[in-house]
Amino acid sequence: MAINRKMEFAADEIALADLAKAISHPARIAILKILAQQKSCICGEIVEGLPLAQATVSQHLKELKTIGLIKGTIEGKTSCYCIDWEVFNQFISHFGVFAELAQNASTQSQSCC
Amino acid sequence: MAINRKMEFAADEIALADLAKAISHPARIAILKILAQQKSCICGEIVEGLPLAQATVSQHLKELKTIGLIKGTIEGKTSCYCIDWEVFNQFISHFGVFAELAQNASTQSQSCC
DNA sequence: AAGTATAATCGTATATTTGCGATATAAAAT
DNA sequence: ATTTTATATCGCAAATATACGATTATACTT
What we know:
Two copies of one chain form a homodimer.
Chain A: H1 11-22, H2 26-37, H3 43-48, H4 54-67, E1 70-75, E2 78-83, H5 85-94, H6 96-104
Antiparallel strand pairs in A: 1-2
The structure holds a DNA duplex (30 and 30 nucleotides).
């Protein structure tokens, strides 16, 4: 982009957009699903379940960790990742904002188009 | 990216990621907020409320329309945009999937890290 | 008919994301 | 001590996303 206008938006809009971006890739959705099911938390096993190289998966894990949706601990030779449900549920509830706005505008049904 | 592995993921994972991508930009969050509040539905007024050029806003509106989150109709000289609540609510409920998976794994609390 | 206003689209520059091989790091196994 | 195993990080190439001026299309206005 010629100019980065990101910072000219409201802080909460930026925060929500960043969280959405974190889950805007099928690999990261797939990772979250695996972790939610507790199918596994070990990096190597996650790699096996995805059509991506180890380096790429590690990068996706890092992104999810940076935004806070998952947390990871090193367990000897391997590392263990888990969903941070507090952050995750908070994220989901952010979407409620839209529904609330709509109710305040008393619409949902009678939209203008 | 060297190779596009997107299509090697499950269809529902791709769909959810695409929806998340649609709201992964503060401008698009801001647009959805304006529409939810029914502050306005006219393109020109939306442009006024954002720190972006008309061409850029039009492009963001198009993305939201392509994914189905909003619908637009031409009203004479101006165009009118509205949130498609059916799609929107469906999208939100998709996130419930994670919570369900977690409950099936009967965890949320006792994570491994 | 000519001018004006609204919004979509095109073309293009720049920024960011994605993907991976190669390499680094660190613990476990030999 | 050396080798193996598990992950993270670096550096680069290719794909996408972002932003906007210029242009186009369409419908109101006069």
